[in-house]
Amino acid sequence: MLVSAGGIARAQSPVGVAAVVNDQPISIIDLVERIKLIAVSSNIEMTPQKSNEMAPQILQQLINEKLQMQEAERRGIEVTQSDIDLAKSTIEQNAGLASGMLDKFLEQRRVAAGTIEDQIKPQVAWQKLLGTMRRDVQISDAEIDENLARIESNQGKPRNRVQEIFLPVDNQQDSSKVYQTAQEVLKALDQGADFGGLARQISASTSAPAGGDLGWLYAGEVASELQLAINQLEPGDVSAPIQTIRGYYIIKLLDRRRGDAAAITDTRLDLYQLFVPVAADTPQDQLNAKLAVMDNAKKTADSCQALANVAVDLGSDLSGEMKGISPNDLSGPVSRAVGGLDKGQISDVIRVDGGALLVMVCDKIEKSNLPDRKSVENRLLMERLDILARRKLRELRREAFIDIRI
Questions:
Q1: Rounded to whole angstroms, how far apart are CA atoms 3 and 33?
Q2: Cα(399)–Cα(406) distance, rounded to whole angstroms?
Q3: Least confident piece of the model among 148-152, 340-344, 382-386
Q4: CA-to-CA distance for 338 and 326, rounded, in angstroms?
């Protein structure tokens, strides 16, 4: 195949047709413009060689989009200009562009007008079609319970924030070709391509519009072969192609949070600390007097405001509030002193460098670290719809007349 973003080579197609899908053509110009769009979106330096290497996968994507649009039209699904404008606005936000600047941005980079809308239309149409399938997908309470139990059992393991690029294998005979495409994607990433931009353009996952970002994942939320690969990555690393029964994944680990086997809940404290400075050479009688004041405050203060009033009376400038703090972020002595306290309770006097402290818990909020049932249900629903979507696309390809001419 000879296709170049710098010039069109029409090896076998004198009329400039790259493929025909049910009597509707995809021109070589369509293919070249899409390659240019991918290069701009993903920060790829698209040499003629790289263009030729990526062209087969991109042509397959254009064929899929043509099939998706045809099926949507057959079912009476319409894509309005409002739908397109909303999608373009989302792209602008993701790219950090000012509102309404996407078209100008692409024009300045010599991407033909209409190329981005030609990509958006089938994406929106397909999402609307999938919306009609939602009613056919039922997620049982037992499935949700099973997922939550698995996540809770893995609570002590790290949580990972990852991005994905998914390249499906619809026919096992094409597995080696898809693997080669995955290798080309890796090569582009090694040369500075933007992972999120590539995911938006070529990933076949429902996460593609979000740049492949899957958010924070608990152990047990992804297939075992993907979890194994994620565990071997450090933040910033990109995996080699991971083969599954569905296709090939490329995973990027964005960040990792270490797990805590006991941290099924996330505790946040609002505290008030009364600090009384005590110099190392303070005479014993003065030290006793200061400690007596603190003991009295402990016995009489029935609220954080009352403790704050004591601080004002003492002229304690280093006293004050701490809001939304995790017990893990406190120093050892303070953390141990307040760890077992409930809202409204006050600690014993805590001796620290340079003085002594009293700490009262003004508020205590405990929130489960586990995803809620609705989040689990939505994730399972999206996975199921993803499977239905690929199954439907395979069916459309089997029934279609597809003539690739380059």
A1: 11
A2: 21
A3: 148-152
A4: 11
Average pLDDT, the chain: 85
Buried b (16+ CB within 10 A) or exposed e, 28-46: bebbbbbbbbbbbbbebeb
How many other CB atoms are there within 10 angstroms of residue 19's CB atom?
22
CB 111 within 8 A of CB 40: yes
pLDDT at 368: 67
Instruction: For residues 196 and 203, give the distance between their C-alpha atoms in angstroms, rounded to a whole number.
Output: 10
Answer yes or no: are the C-beta atoms of 358 and 350 closer than 8 Å. Answer: yes
Question: Under 8 Å CB-to-CB from 141, ≥6 apart: which residues?
Answer: none
Buried b (16+ CB within 10 A) or exposed e, 350-389: beeeebbbbbbbbebeeeebbbeeeebbebbebbbbbeeb
Burial of residue 193, with CB atoms counted within 10 A of its CB: 0-12 exposed, 13-18 middle, 19 or more buried: buried
Burial class of 300 by CB neighbour count within 10 A (0 to 12, 13 to 18, 19+)? exposed
Which pLDDT tens digit goes with each residue over 324-355? 888 777 877 888 888 788 898 998 888 887 88
Q: How far apart are CA 184 and CA 53, in angstroms?
A: 7
pLDDT tens digits for range 245-282: 889 999 999 998 775 544 456 688 899 988 888 887 88
Instruction: For tokens 């026919």, name the residue.
Output: 171
Joined tokens for residue 287: 């030290």
Long-range contacts made by residues 239-243, C-beta under 8 angstroms, separation at least 24? Answer: 240/186, 241/179, 241/182, 241/183, 241/186, 243/175, 243/179
Phi and psi angles of residue 168, each rounded to the nearest 5 degrees, phi first:
-75, 150
- Taking the C-alpha atoms of residue 226 and residue 218, their distance in angstroms, rounded to an integer, is 12
Closest CA to 184 of 171, 169, 204, 165: 165
For tokens 């029409």, the residue is: 10
The residue type of 248 is Y
